[in-house]
Amino acid sequence: MSSACATTDSLPPWFDAIERVPLRSVLVNGHRIAYVDAGEGIPVILLHGFGGSMWQWEYQQRLSDSLRVIIPDVLGSGLSDKPEISYSPDDMMGFLMEFMDALHIRQAVLVGHSMGAGLAVGMALEHPDRVTKLVLISGLPQHVRQKLTNPTIKRALDTPAPASVYTYTV
């Protein structure tokens, strides 16, 4: 692995965006995950897209005025560890479940952008008891349905959301 892709030994102390928020880390299945956890109330987990990081959500950190906002660098991204795994949908859903468990979050609102939207949809389908609401942003490119091979994502597109889950796509 090149050193440019490797996780640094230590994390910066702050998430420097609109406001300074302490940067935290937690071990998930033996891998360090960097994240921001700010505010109190209903937990809302913001999931970035492929190639992104928690910094994509810097303007949304203000939601922490009334909600508990958790913004991870998803496994393999940003300041989090980058293990040599397949990063399959099942791997990533397992990561998110274990991340939620590590933070003692039973249920959360999931907000996903791009790849993060796919992860959020997968969680809502496979573990609906862990997801209270969904917000999906640019989750699927045009004409993707014809090229899908993953059965979980296909089922997501063909299954209406339960009445308790509100899905917004922009």
Can you put this structure into words, describing what you see?
This protein is α/β, with parallel strands linked by helices. It has one domain: Rossmann fold (3-Layer(aba) Sandwich), CATH 3.40.50. It has a 7-stranded mixed beta sheet. Helix 1 packs across helix 2 and helix 2 crosses helix 3. The chain is globular, with a radius of gyration of 16 Å.
Give a brief outline of the structure.
The chain is built from 3 helices and 7 strands; from the N terminus they run βββββαβαβα.
Number of helices: 3
Q: Count up the domains.
A: 1
H/E series: EEEEEHEHEH
Approximate helicity band: 10-25%
Strand content: 25-35%
Overall form: globular
Largest sheet features = 7 strands, mixed
Backbone CA Rg: 16 Å
CATH class: Alpha Beta
> What is the average per-residue confidence, as pLDDT, rounded to a whole number?
82
Number of strands: 7
Q: Kindly report the CATH topology.
A: Rossmann fold
Record the strand order, biggest sheet.
1-2-3-5-4-6-7
Kindly list the characteristics that best describe this protein.
single chain, alpha/beta, Rossmann fold, 3 helices, disordered N terminus, disordered C terminus
Give me the secondary-structure topology:
Elements lengths: L13 E3 L3 E9 L2 E8 L4 E5 L20 E5 L16 H14 L5 E6 L1 H12 L4 E7 L13 H8 L12
Parallel strand pairs: 4-5, 4-6, 6-7
Antiparallel strand pairs: 1-2, 2-3, 3-5
